[in-house]
Fold this protein.
Amino acid sequence: MRRKLVVGNWKMHGSHPANAELLAGILGARPFNTDVAVCVPFPYLSETAVTLAGSELRWGAQDVSAHEQGAYTGEVSAAMLAEFGCRYAIVGHSERRAYHAESDQLVADKAKAALARGVTPIVCVGETLQQREAGETEAVVKRQLSAVIHTLTHCIGEIVVAYEPVWAIGTGRTASPEQAQQVHALLRAQLLAATPHAADMRLLYGGSVKPDNAATLFAQADIDGGLIGGAALKAADFAAICRAAE
Ligand code: 13P
């Protein structure tokens, strides 16, 4: 039985007072009978680590460099993240693929760099509306995941995968539970062909997950939790989504 995982992706939101209030709200809503993490902007990683220390809540980054170290201005290495206890790093979020032209191979290299330092990559895949309407959903997500499978080889079972249809992100237009399950089943089958551990891997759904739709999404056979954007910025909503995963 896979334990569910709910991850808040704060994106580029936050401030010292707002973070303190949000984290206090989430901490106050515990205990959760599910794994919970927040992925916060780089400057807030350290204070998040301090605030969550001693709790079962985990924290992570929203990106990581594919490089070990060196002349890469503005980048943050997996070793730096690992140094102070970072558990997760989101890689290949569609916003990074779209606005920073991240290729499938770069995303795979980032996942490899994270794993090498014991930081679990949450690898995002997902199709645009145009690709869905052209019937390309399966081909797109398989191509995105395939790059990661080929790069990580025998370590592929150690990642978390997040299916985030681009058309459902921040739009209020959630994939139906059936639509999401269909893609999750495809991804699980692709992983099963690559690793005997695929049955234990967690596949998250992301895209307009809210307290009122989370339970039906999480009830699907291959949906093992969520990657939450907007609703992760309100403690009550995020806590309600975590409850829906219990
Ligand atoms: P929303 O929940 O705001 O649609 O964002 C989803 C997402 O991109 C999480 O990574």
Notes: The pocket of 1,3-dihydroxyacetonephosphate is lined by residues 9, 93, 164, 169-170, 206-209, 227-231 (CB under 6 Å). The domain at 5-245 is CATH 3.20.20.70 (TIM Barrel).
